[in-house]
Write a structure and sequence with these properties.
With 427 residues, the chain is of the alpha/beta class. The protein has 15 helices and 20 strands. The strands form five sheets. It has a seven-stranded mixed sheet, with helices on both faces. Helix 8 packs parallel to helix 9 (255-268) and helix 9 packs parallel to helix 10. Its cofactor is [4Fe-4S] cluster.
């Protein structure tokens, strides 16, 4: 068997995030008998010399390059990640033109053909890659032309595209947990990598801008609550990791599944401090209490807006009344919470934005993170609403902003609220 180096191309350090998908791939390879290493590009200078020196030291036969995001998703200060990924591929090619380069990750899976064309990488895997990477490498080691690998895409020497649709495995409980030993570093005395845990894949909700259903499927596939708790116990006992986030698109859907995970954690009596992303529709007094008992210290609600007009346009399954309710329930349990806003959706106007911000002040919400504009992604309602731009255009930052509200207007409206509320951030 050859040697594999998995590279997390992400360089964002605010906050430094654990590359969960890549760690699953690493664990799958190791469990299948492959020698695999991991390189976190937040820990290495992003230069040809530094990367070449690392490649010389490790000497891999195959490179797996994980692309987490297309860009920074910021309309005001857009920054594409395409060029830095292309540079990485070029540096690998210069080091050893025979090393096979395989792309993957959520960012890649959104626009796989465009990424392969732009970078010139050999192969790409769309969607869940744990089994696919093992099968692909096994075929390559046997000297075969790869075929019938779930999610595999590549261009033949004749210029034809081969693609096998990804299979979404229903069984998410594996004999292995994500590899974490390569990501225990600190950036400074007080700031370690923020680790994360996944309890499910797939999303049955219908938010107009969201690509999760396209990336993971609309069928929600659940890990067992016991398996989730076992992984967290391993994190604490083996790696001293008690602080983490659940990174499901919505932790509390299905609600019963989240409740059972909390009960499992309560029974383990582990020293934990964790956060999660929640939907107001599936939030009850009992669940708030379970969160608190299970070690949850902060929750984030992706409400997007406080205006029912905008909530309907986003196809949200809750309204302003539920937002008011979750604020009270969190305060009853002394549970820290924050709201995420998306400013400039299809029905946004100066009036709806004022309505949202007035509601936030009325409810005395301490922390808000607001994004101007909606990143247009393929296979979403927003993509159609924005006129179905060519997929090639979407590899680089492309945003929608309500025709009834300019970016300048939105900034001007938010400015006095930001001054009165120092923990409200708008970018």
């Amino acid at each position: 068997m050859g040697r594999v180096l998995l590279i997390s191309a992400n360089t964002e350090k605010r906050p430094p995030v654990f590359p969960l998908g890549l760690s699953y791939i690493h664990a799958s390879l190791v469990a299948s008998g492959w020698e695999a290493g991991m390189l976190d590009m937040t820990q290495l200078e992003y230069t040809r010399e530094a990367v070449t020196n690392y490649l010389n030291a490790y000497a891999p036969d195959y490179i797996g390059l994980s692309i987490r995001n297309l860009d920074n998703c910021c309309m005001q200060y857009p920054r594409s990640f395409v060029d830095q990924v292309c540079l990485m591929v070029d540096w690998v090619r210069e080091w050893n033109s025979r090393a096979g380069i395989i792309l993957g990750g959520a960012g890649f899976s959104l626009l796989p053909r465009q990424w392969l064309q732009e970078t010139g990488a050999d192969y790409g895997i769309v969607g869940d890659g744990c089994d696919s990477i093992v099968e692909l490498l096994s075929q390559l080691e046997a000297g075969q032309v790869p075929s019938a690998v779930s999610g595999l895409m590549f261009r033949t020497r004749a210029g034809e595209w081969n693609y096998w649709s990804p299979y979404a495995p229903e069984q998410l409980d594996q004999e292995y947990f994500p590899s974490r030993s390569g990501f225990l570093h600190s950036y400074d005395v007080d700031r370690r990598v923020r680790h994360n845990v996944l309890t499910k894949r797939g999303c049955a909700l219908s938010c107009t801008y969201c690509a999760y259903p396209s990336l993971e499927g609309r069928a929600v596939r659940l890990r067992s609550p016991k398996g989730v708790a076992d992984e967290i116990e391993q994190m604490v006992v083996q790696y001293d990791i008690g602080s983490f986030d659940f990174v499901d698109s919505v932790f509390n859907y299905p609600l019963e599944h989240a409740e059972e995970i909390c009960r499992e954690l309560i029974g383990r009596t582990l020293p934990l401090s964790w956060g999660c992303f929640l939907n107001p529709r599936f939030f009850t007094a009992e669940f708030a209490g379970l969160l608190r008992q299970a070690g949850c210290t902060e929750v984030e609600f992706g409400i997007d807006s406080g205006s029912d007009i905008c909530l309907r346009s986003f196809k949200k399954n809750f309204r302003q009344a539920e937002i008011r309710t979750v604020v009270q329930l969190c305060r009853d349990q002394a549970l820290d919470f924050s709201f995420c806003l998306l400013i400039g959706g299809p029905e946004e106007t100066p009036e709806t934005l004022h309505e949202t911000l007035e509601l936030m002040e009325e409810l005395a919400v301490q922390r808000i993170f607001g994004l101007f504009g909606i990143r247009i992604l393929p296979s979403t309602d927003m993509y159609s609403y924005a006129g179905s731009p060519e997929p090639d255009e979407l590899l680089h930052p492309k945003f929608f902003m309500s025709p009834k509200l300019s970016l300048e207007q939105a900034n001007s409206i938010c400015a006095p609220y930001r001054e009165r509320n120092p923990d409200w951030m708008f970018i």
